[in-house]
Amino acid sequence: MSSAAETVENASIIAESAAHDGNRLWIGNIDPKITEYHLVKLLEKFGKVKQFDFLFHKSGPLEGQPRGYCFVNFSTREEAERAIQCLNGKLALSKKLVVRWAHAQVRVTR
Questions:
Q1: pTM for this prediction
Q2: Which residues contact 56 (CB under 8 A, 6 or more apart)?
Q3: Can you give the residue ranges of the RRM domain (predicted)?
Q4: CA-CA distance, 56 to 51, in Å (whole number)?
Q5: I want to staple 83 with a disulfide (CB 3.0 to 4.6 A). Which of 18, 46, 67, 97 is the partner?
């Protein structure tokens, strides 16, 4: 059984390797009422979506419910940049979306 730290580290490695094409975005603060379908339709307005990963809780009391974030790959960097500019901070149902490059890491300092 892996620890939470190992799980986070592995997720970071996976996100980093998938982000190498430079067109991968992380979208967070997604309202739980937004479906995969509606999110993909929204993202397709900015360009060709090559890959879309909408994550769900695998276990626990929230099993099967959305985790509140996703990853998306666009065909070109320009499409991804346009999505960031247009969607970051925009209200989607009850929450403001957070859209950034998938490889950007937030460091916590103590």
A1: 0.74
A2: 64, 65, 66, 67
A3: 23-104
A4: 16
A5: 46
